[in-house]
Design goal:
There is one protein chain. The chain is built from 14 helices and 19 strands. The strands form 5 sheets. Strands 12-11-8-13-16-17-18-19 form an 8-stranded mixed sheet, sandwiched between helices. It has a 5-stranded parallel sheet with strand order 2-1-3-4-5, sandwiched between helices. α1 packs across α9 and α4 packs across α6. It folds into 2 domains: 182 residues, Rossmann fold (3-Layer(aba) Sandwich); 206 residues, CoaB-like (Rossmann fold, 3-Layer(aba) Sandwich). The protein starts with a strand and ends with a helix. The longest helix has 17 residues. The protein has 413 residues and is an alpha/beta fold. Bound molecules: ligand PMT. Ligand PMT binds next to α10, α12 and β16.
């Protein structure tokens, strides 16, 4: 008997032929696959291809007289452990996000209680379009899992993000989701709050918040970091099965549950705490805003203003935690930095990547509304060794998941 039952939904894009490879790979992994196609998908691949390989009727239209099942969208949707959409067009994503059920596949989405995983593929502009990103965000909130498109040459001969993720990666993530649901005894039940445990076995060490550098017992130098971004990454990593340790400076929000919190208020203290924890880590993320300079000699007593019209503070360079982590990295450690910039954001972020020897840099332009310090949202560019991905305005929690998707991708590439 097949281990899992997968409903494979194919929508109408040039990548539809890849759905055949996904179906074969799932079958090889022990899945029983049933296929549903949108009418446009049949323009790209014949239903007969799937029918021959699954030995089952391929449903395109509930009302087709050839359809052996008179209420197929209910029976199909209730007898699967996963609904996997490969490829997903902007149109099918929009229908799912808005509850439109005007064909077999969109009706199946509404009628299923199984977890749903979507692998989009489309032109870069369509993917980046605010409406598409809004729909993706809404579906994520509804508990839908995404295997995000990657950068590459597209059918329209442009290069950008929108290419379907590799077949193996789609299958690996689908199988991981099925296994997680199985472990929880939830296969086929409502998965709205579940997540893929694709970071199980990883140990994240994350710096969070701003540092505080004492001038005297009363005064200090600091910055506007709230800890929201770093804690969002910590929360997302823990939700995806990772073990998480956070080294927190000054924060204005509470840390998430299920993570170990160590304090490191000054750059020096944060550096020492990180170095203490580093040997256990498999992924290091520097989300903290660490002061680059601290007073060279903090006064032991409150500095008095009497008799002074001005004051000069001598500053000394603080240890660069991220650079030190990278310099002392052990085998397998991924090192990820953030870059908060006001101009030439990508240029400075790329030069940090080189100088500090980083695997990934998340660059945020802190001059943009809704990005950077103390906001619930961010706008970022995830800079990779072989390219970059633009992240439009989204919640910090959502961005955290996008960063973690790159960790998963780095592990499997
Ligand atoms: O905390 P929030 O309010 O949510 O705000 C989020 C954020 C804007 C702080 C975050 O998204 C961010 O960009 N963090 C890095 C800010 C920063 O200090 O950037 P930087 O360009 O100065 O530093 C580059 C990298 O080196 C960072 O990963 C930083 O953690 C690290 N660094 C810098 C100096 C130093 N002495 N040690 C370090 O580890």
């Amino acid at each position: 008997m097949a281990k899992y039952r997968v409903g494979l939904g194919v929508s109408g894009g040039i990548a539809a032929y890849k759905a055949v490879e996904v179906m074969r790979a799932l079958q090889k992994s022990g899945c029983d696959v049933s296929v549903a196609m949108t009418r446009h998908a049949t323009e790209f691949v014949q239903p007969l291809t799937f029918r021959a390989l699954t030995d089952k009727h391929v449903i395109v239209d509930d009302y087709d007289p050839q359809n052996p099942d008179p209420i197929a969208h209910i029976n199909f949707s209730q007898n699967i452990d996963l609904l996997l959409i490969v490829p997903a067009t902007a149109n099918i994503i929009a229908k799912f996000a808005n509850g439109v059920a005007d064909d077999f596949l969109s009706s199946t989405y509404l009628a299923t209680t199984a977890p749903v995983m979507i692998a989009p593929a489309m032109n870069t502009t369509m993917w980046d379009q605010a409406a598409t990103q809004r729909n993706v965000e809404r579906l994520r909130k509804d508990g839908v899992h995404f295997v995000l498109p990657v950068e590459g040459e597209l059918a329209c001969k442009t290069v950008g993000t929108g290419k379907l993720e590799d077949v193996e990666n789609i299958c690996r993530q689908a199988m991981a989701l099925l296994a997680t649901c199985d472990e929880r005894g939830e296969t086929g039940e409502d998965q709205s709050s579940s997540n893929v445990c694709d970071l199980k076995g990883e140990h994240f060490l994350i710096t969070v918040g701003g540092t505080r550098e004492a001038i005297d017992p009363v005064r200090f130098i600091s910055n506007h970091s709230s800890g929201k971004m770093g804690f969002a990454v910590a929360e997302a990593a823990a939700a995806r099965g990772a073990n998480v340790t956070v080294v927190a400076g000054v924060t204005t929000v509470d840390p998430p549950a299920n993570v170990k919190v160590v304090q490191g208020i000054s750059a020096e203290e944060m550096h020492d705490a990180v170095m203490n924890e580093l040997s256990k880590a498999s992924v290091f993320i520097g989300a903290a805003a660490v002061a680059d300079y601290a007073p060279a000699n903090a006064a032991d007593a409150k500095i008095k203003k009497e008799g002074r019209d001005s004051m000069t503070l001598e500053l000394k360079k603080t240890p660069d935690i991220l650079a030190d982590v990278s310099r002392h990295r052990h085998d397998g450690l991924l090192v990820i930095g953030f870059a908060a910039e006001t101009n030439d954001v990508i240029g400075y972020a790329r030069s940090k990547m080189e100088k500090k020897g980083l695997d990934i840099v998340v660059a945020n332009d802190i001059t943009k509304a809704g990005a950077g310090f103390n906001t619930d949202t961010n706008i970022a560019t995830i800079i990779l060794r072989g390219g970059q991905k633009e992240m439009p305005l989204m919640s910090k929690r959502e961005l955290a998941d996008r960063i973690l998707d790159e960790v998963v991708r780095a592990r499997t590439s």
